[in-house]
Amino acid sequence: MFPRHRPRRLRRTESIRRLVRETVLTVDDLVFPMFVVPGTGVRREISSMPGNYHLSVDELLREVERVAELSIPGILLFGIPEHKDECGSEAWSETAPVQCAVRAAKQAFPELCVMTDVCLCEYTSHGHCGVVEDGRVLNDPTLELLAKTARSHAEAGADIVAPSDMMDGRVLAIRGALDEAGFSEVAILSYAAKYASAFYGPFREAAGSAPQFGDRRGYQMDPPNVREAVREVAADIEECADIVMVKPALPYLDVLAKLASTCSTPIAAYHVSGEFAMLKAAARNGWLDERRAALEALTSIKRAGADFILTYYAPDAAGWLRETAC
């Protein structure tokens, strides 16, 4: 006899599917990464990331207005400085693009959650994420510079600072610096499980942050490892990270799911530039339906356990979700 249990009964109509859907992606799950540059009137599309731009502060505010209208709860700011040097001193300058953008965004949109990337790679002439000596990236001397950078972001009004450098002990150093300066309410989103991935290529073009020698495999995580991610996350939580992140997202859904099953701290996932660019390129060649593919990818990240997703698709996804809701 044919079994009486027929799973297709609950797939028969869209309304039934909605009622039993296990994972629901909403606009509340999205954070939009943005690139801010010096000057005024600058709106320059990033060739490898269509629909994303280098923006001066005035142009960024126009884009943030659209983000707010779409009810996207947060943005993450990356800065491209006018000048770079060996130690990345523009990273903690009061007049650097990120600090200016934070002040402007919080003044214009006080309810928006403004996050800032805390790293040195965009600011150093050598493109590495820390202090370099004799061709080596030094861990401990870098911590002081990261802490200075995070403090400058907090002074500008950032709600959350997000260290992405993968130096050991950076969360503890930043937490201490923030608390000492009276910014105990500023949260830390740690790029806790950040892998040395091939999927960062478009971002490095956008940020001008490709290393001038060697690579970052000496401090970012080795892609085959998952138990190491558990240790990294545990260490950052012990150092008082408020949120931890897995980056990239799609190639590391297993890592995300493992962490989500054991970790009570909120977990973010970064749908990175290469993941975004692949979908864009395939869609432009007519090889897939961009809307369906992008929403499917983002839903898979949430299904794996992300509490929120940083994605260059945030404005498009928010618009698509709004249309679906209507």
Describe the structure.
- With 326 residues, the protein is α/β, with parallel strands linked by helices.
- It contains 11 helices and 12 strands.
- It is globular, with a radius of gyration of 20 Å.
- The model has no long low-confidence stretch (mean pLDDT 95).
Provide the CATH top-level class: Alpha Beta
In round numbers, the mean pLDDT is 95
What about the largest sheet? Answer: 8 strands, parallel, barrel
Shape: globular
Superfamily (CATH H level) name: Aldolase class I
Please list the strands of the largest sheet in the order they lie side by side: 1-4-5-8-9-10-11-12
Low-confidence stretches: none
Summary keywords:
326 residues; alpha/beta
Offer a concise description of the structure.
The protein is α/β, with parallel strands linked by helices and 326 residues long. The protein contains 11 helices and 12 strands.
Summarize the SSE layout with pairings.
Elements: H1 14-20, E1 30-36, E2 43-45, E3 53-55, H2 57-69, E4 74-79, H3 97-108, E5 113-118, E6 131-133, E7 136-138, H4 139-156, E8 160-163, H5 170-180, E9 187-194, H6 201-207, H7 227-238, E10 243-247, H8 253-262, E11 267-271, H9 273-284, H10 290-304, E12 308-311, H11 314-325
Helix pairs in contact: 2-3, 3-4, 4-5, 8-10
